[in-house]
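for the recovery benchmark. tokens below, seq after
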């Protein structure tokens, strides 16, 4: 890849922040955790297409509730030399486990919401019964 094409494919920290709606602190944190590997030119960080792809996967993984360690393990499987078979298989297994947890949490929330609505309806009925203007009549 010639130098001009290489430079065009690089993004500054500001461009990364704007593109992915993250803070510079977030990018530095992921770099410190060795999840991103920007090119360093003095104090300047330049992010490659690989960094952008990794950040997209990191953010998606975080949204799905994956830990940074789980995300790191999945990212590290990219270079296994098996056309990403291992990465996809492990990612699917992890995703299935997280989906089951999310569905369980949703069921618990649905139950709690239903119970809260019942309590609120009871309180509204009781307040109506106790309302001073109704008792005086």
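predicted aa per position
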């Amino acid at each position: 890849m010639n130098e001009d094409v290489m430079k065009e494919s690089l993004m500054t920290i500001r461009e990364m922040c704007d593109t992915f709606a993250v803070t510079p602190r977030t990018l530095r944190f992921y770099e410190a955790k060795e999840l991103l590997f920007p090119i360093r030119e003095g104090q300047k960080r330049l992010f490659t297409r690989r960094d952008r792809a990794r950040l997209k996967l990191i953010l998606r993984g975080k949204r799905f509730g994956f830990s940074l360690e789980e995300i790191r393990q999945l990212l590290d499987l990219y270079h296994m030399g098996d056309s990403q078979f291992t990465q996809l298989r492990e990612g699917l297994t992890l995703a299935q486990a997280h989906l089951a947890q999310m569905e369980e949490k949703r069921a618990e929330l649905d139950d709690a919401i239903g119970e809260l609505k019942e309590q609120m309806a009871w309180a509204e009925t009781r307040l109506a019964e106790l309302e001073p203007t109704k008792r005086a009549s």
